[in-house]
Amino acid sequence: MKESLISIKYLLVKRGEKVVLRVEKLDIQHGEVLAVVGPNGAGKSTLLLSLARLLKPEQGKIFFNNTQAENTSIRSASSASESDTAYRRRIALVMQDPLLFDTSVFENVASGLRFRGMSKDEIRQKVPLWVERLGISHLSQRRASELSGGEAQRVSLARALVLEPELLLLDEPFSSLDPPTRSSILDDLGALLKETSTTTLFVTHDLPEAAQLADRMAIVIENRLQQIDEAKMLFEKPANKDVARFLNYRSM
Amino acid sequence: MTAPFSLAIMIFDAEVLQITILSLQISALATGVSLLIGLPLGTILAQSKFPGRSFFLSMVNTGMGLPPVVVGLFVAMMLWRSGPMGNLKLIYTPIAIIIAQVVISFPVVTGLTAAALQALDPRLKLQLYGLGASRLQMIWMLWKEARLPLLAALMAGFGSVISEVGASMMVGGNIRHQTRVLTTAIVLETGKGNFDIAIALGILLLTITFLVNWALTWIQQRGARR
User: Fold this and answer.
1) Which residues pair with A25 in a beta bridge?
2) Per-residue pLDDT for chain B (226 aa), expressed as one digit of tens each?
């Protein structure tokens, strides 16, 4: 068995007094695409934000490459200590809405590289490569505000992938796109993730989407990680009634 | 002599020129200092959560409507020879006017900066952090995203001081060649019944205000091709 990139032990996240996520154990292997599925409001995004250190867990440990990610000062998103920044520079985040910056496509894709202090020459080398890979070369000089929804989400993906992150975090990136656009981006992204073997955590409430992109699925229901396995195994041996009900309902 | 002709002569008079330049220097400096205070302060008010935050925001918003004469009174008392800061000998100097104008305009810049940043999508901050931005890089990007309303804040700050007369009169004293600015000169000339000079000064004041705002609007709209 391969080494885990991420290893979570007894994670507990609270909002006020309410427990919003409980994970006893979760390992993400190097190069694996793990889908996190579950109903809306079950705690999927909480898991992703905890991994991005944008939320502070109440308890628990998150190991990144066998070193514990220190939960120093992440009381909320408003604080960012140096160690948080250093940690976040090894990951990349794509959210449900593209949230592009009001500048050109090129500058959007270059933004994360600039945060990392990369030289202009390197940026001029890397950005065209990734806009090409996501099929948006012809849009490089366009302003982000002029793009369609699908084009904007491709820019958002390029902006994350250009960083060649050790861990890519995707938070329902396709849920606001129409079906044809969604499936074409999904195909391209699947191929790119395989080619680069980028370790990816992919949050979605769409089972077919999860099955297409992911090696394994983690089922989160009612603020708790219920089961983690390959899709086939999940259907054959759901861990409990909740998982079975969710899988049956969704796959109908 | 016809009226327009005499107006033209007055506008190019050496003393009028000196008054105009002094007005511009004082108000530009005051706006600059207000920006240095208001931009960080407005950012903190918009971005941080701390107890008393909404109280501070209300204070700032009230400050946006401070009557210049009240500011003039307060600053005059502070700088008065026998006052707490009297030993600095600043009363009736251009610096006194700048201090009063900063007090008038920094709440304007602060309040509008906070409003501009609060209007941004709150998830933008998470997205920036999620791409590896440090705290300063995150704030810099938010400023860039809000550059249009931030320039509007700058224009409002400048507008509130170049047009202000009460405080300048009270702490500057309207001393010829030293603290006489366009607005206080207009008050003086009107009081003396010299309407033609007052009108010439009024036209100059309007022209300057227009030119400064035109330049700022041009910068603002250059970035607004949507």
Assistant:
1) A9
2) 456 666 677 777 888 889 999 999 999 999 999 999 999 999 999 998 899 999 999 999 999 999 999 999 999 999 999 999 999 999 999 999 999 999 999 999 999 999 999 999 999 999 999 999 999 999 999 999 999 999 999 999 999 999 999 999 999 999 999 999 999 999 999 999 999 889 989 999 999 999 999 999 998 888 665 4
Residues sharing a CB contact under 8 Å with residue A104, sequence separation 6 or more, in sequence order: A140, A141, A142, A143, A144
B121–chain A Cβ distance below 8 A for any pair: yes
Q: What value of ipTM does the predicted structure carry?
A: 0.91
B134/A80 touch (CB, cutoff 8 Å), yes or no: yes
Residue B5 CB partners (closer than 8 Å, separation 6+): none
Closest-CA distance, B154 to chain A, in angstroms, reads 20
Domain boundaries, chain B: 3-222
**In which residue ranges of chain A is CATH 3.40.50.300 found?**
4-90+169-251
Distance from CA of A138 to the nearest CA of B (A): 19
Say which CATH topology domain A4-90+169-251 has.
Rossmann fold (3.40.50)
Closest-approach residue (CA) in chain A for B121: A99
A vs B, Cβ pairs < 8 A, gives: 76
- The CATH number of the structural domain formed by B3-222 is 1.10.3720.10
CA dihedral angle for residue A38, residue A40, residue A44, residue A48, rounded to 10 degrees: 140
| pTM score, whole prediction | 0.89
